[in-house]
């Protein structure tokens, strides 16, 4: 039954592939004057992540190192009519909003701009001339970002990874965040492993506080093992939810938040009807030994 379900989903994915436009050159779009990103910048020898340069001592204007809230949600392209109401409510007290299947409609841009978020989207494709991909929004601007994409082996529609960096106020530390949407429609684990390995290659250059979050499409034990091994190599651990409403497929959780050199103060999930995934909300502080 599970195999038939997966084949059905693959067939739908192939049909959707005929309706989308994939940009020839990958990059990001945002609402502020900041750094851009291309396929190559994540892996440049000149990447500022490679130098691990500490921030200015006791810097001002970063994320609050004593407590900041992260919202992660696969928003199902905002296709539900009342989805925006959920996002407005969930983001009201969030310092960082990380979306997978973010669909950059005028309504979404208006909401994020009204709440004074600085946002970037790593474009995977355009549907009806509206860009879709992973989107990261923050109360402050990142001082570094890069992104890359990994095509679905069957449909060719890419999944994207967006990596951003933020100073933490009152410290000389930076927080790096990887917002990930993993490939889905592949029975070959090597494609899944390759996308995760590329992500780890970039963020392993950073030795400080780290969040790795997103829709990992970790729907079988083999994928879960690949994910667990790479997370362990990065010295990170998974957020545990006492009441866990995260989406499952084939008996496995597919959405995760991993962290390093941080302390979770509160971790919540919430049931919604406006997406096939439920949002995760976690409040972190900087670890004392970071």
Top-tier CATH class = Alpha Beta
- Please provide the ordered H/E string of secondary-structure elements: HEEEEHEHEEEEEHEHEEEEEE
Q: Give the total of beta strands.
A: 17
Note the overall shape: globular
Q: How does CATH name the architecture? A: 4-Layer Sandwich
Which regions are unreliable across 5 or more consecutive residues at pLDDT < 50?
A: none
The CATH superfamily is identified as: Endonuclease/exonuclease/phosphatase
Roughly what is the average pLDDT, rounded to an integer?
88
The profile of the biggest β sheet is:
8 strands, mixed
CA-to-CA gap between the ends? 47 Å
Q: Which secondary-structure class do the elements indicate?
A: alpha+beta
Indicate how many domains the architecture comprises: 1
* CATH-defined fold name: Deoxyribonuclease I, Chain A
Specify the helix fraction band. Answer: 10-25%
- State the helix count: 5
Radius of gyration, whole Å: 18 Å
Classify the beta-strand content into a percent band. Answer: 35-45%
């Amino acid at each position: 039954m599970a195999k038939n379900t997966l084949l059905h989903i693959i067939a739908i994915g192939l049909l959707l592939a005929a309706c989308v436009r994939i940009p020839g050159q990958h990059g990001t779009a945002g609402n502020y004057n900041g750094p851009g990103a291309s396929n190559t910048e994540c892996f440049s020898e000149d990447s500022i992540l490679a130098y691990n340069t500490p921030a200015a001592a006791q810097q001002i204007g970063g994320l609050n190192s004593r407590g900041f809230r992260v919202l992660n949600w696969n928003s199902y392209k905002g296709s539900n009519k009342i989805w925006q109401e959920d996002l407005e409510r969930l983001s009201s007290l969030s310092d960082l909003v990380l979306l997978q299947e973010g669909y950059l409609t005028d309504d979404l841009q208006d909401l994020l701009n009204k709440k004074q978020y600085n946002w970037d989207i790593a474009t995977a494709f355009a549907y009806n001339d509206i860009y879709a991909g992973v989107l990261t929004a923050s109360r402050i601007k990142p001082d570094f970002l890069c992104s890359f994409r990994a095509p679905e082996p069957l449909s060719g529609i890419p999944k994207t990874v967006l990596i951003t960096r933020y100073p933490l106020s009152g410290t000389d530390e930076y927080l790096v965040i990887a917002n990930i949407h993993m490939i889905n429609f592949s029975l070959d684990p090597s494609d899944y492993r390759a996308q995760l390995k590329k992500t780890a290659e970039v963020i392993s250059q950073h030795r400080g506080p780290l969040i790795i979050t997103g829709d990992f499409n970790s729907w079988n034990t083999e994928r879960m093992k690949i994910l667990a091994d790479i997370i362990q190599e990065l010295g990170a651990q998974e957020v545990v939810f006492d009441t866990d409403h995260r989406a499952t497929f084939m008996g496995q959780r597919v959405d995760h938040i991993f962290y390093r050199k941080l302390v979770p103060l509160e971790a919540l999930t919430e049931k919604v009807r406006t997406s096939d995934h439920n949002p995760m909300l976690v409040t972190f502080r900087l670890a004392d030994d970071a």
